[in-house]
Amino acid sequence: xxxxxxxxxxxxxxxxxxxxxxxxxxxxxxxxxxxxxxxxxxxxxxxxxxxxxxxxxxxxxxxxxxxxxxxxxxxxxxxxxxxxxxxxxxxxxxxxxxxxxxxxxxxxxxxxxxxxxxxxxxxxxxxxxxxxxxxxxxxxxxxxxxxxxxxxxxxxxxxxxxxxxxxxxxxxxxxxxxxxxxxxxxxxxxxxxxxxxxxxxxxxxxxxxxxxxxxx
Amino acid sequence: xxxxxxxxxxxxxxxxxxxxxxxxxxxxxxxxxxxxxxxxxxxxxxxxxxxxxxxxxxxxxxxxxxxxxxxxxxxxxxxxxxxxxxxxxxxxxxxxxxxxxxxxxxxxxxxxxxxxxxxxxxx
Lengths: 216, 123
Known about the structure:
By secondary structure, chain A is α/β, with parallel strands linked by helices. Chain A has four helices and five strands. Classes of the chains: A alpha/beta (about 220), B mainly beta (about 120).
């Protein structure tokens, strides 16, 4: 018994069709790949998604800081020095994983640049954001350091306002099967001495997109 | 003599080029895509705290809302743009057949001048 190793012309053409089809699919997939690009953050016109990106944080911070400065409530201290702000709690009530420092840093830098407010990093709700300022006081007991260069007692300045807020997400189905997502940025500036809010502001960033798109 | 002089005067008057339109404020930069909008001269003033503020009124004559992208650079006394969130692009939907006021505030009293760019938001 011998095996017929010759292939029929039909199988040849079928194989060729398969090869061509696979090549076309591969080419199509390759063309779908996007080359990596550098983006100028000051002129970022790239596509957006249903989630939040840095442009949204900048837009929210820009609007809220403008409201703070326009409120006229951020007057200097009685000694003429700028107010000292501590960062309190910013609650992330969204389905996104957000490092809220992205928002607080933008706000504090912009307020610092305005000349009205400075930020303390030595006091924070969960401890200081920079623990070294306090720890460096331990050098007072070290004979290795020139004591005139060590921070003395009573030199730190306590905060007189605190920054707190929320980021809230609300998702709804709208007509046509699309999804609408509202992200609400709320920020408060509270006078620590009195507990009264000096400023309360809210900025909403809204997306409407395909219902198939997920926002987490 | 008068018969000859009159047509000559009329001819010269016809050849005279019309006066150029008033030059638009160079601090306002308009891309071709916003050419169909009615845009006022910028009104610059300062608030109670001394920071500069600018207003621009824009009339959208179209029968559709116009997606506007605008960006305001704030310049210090040497003409350098200040690094600020206030110079990031902002977006407004200009309602159809009505006027919308675009306003911007300087981030600090260091700002001495501004430069505003108006463009379409083509995203």
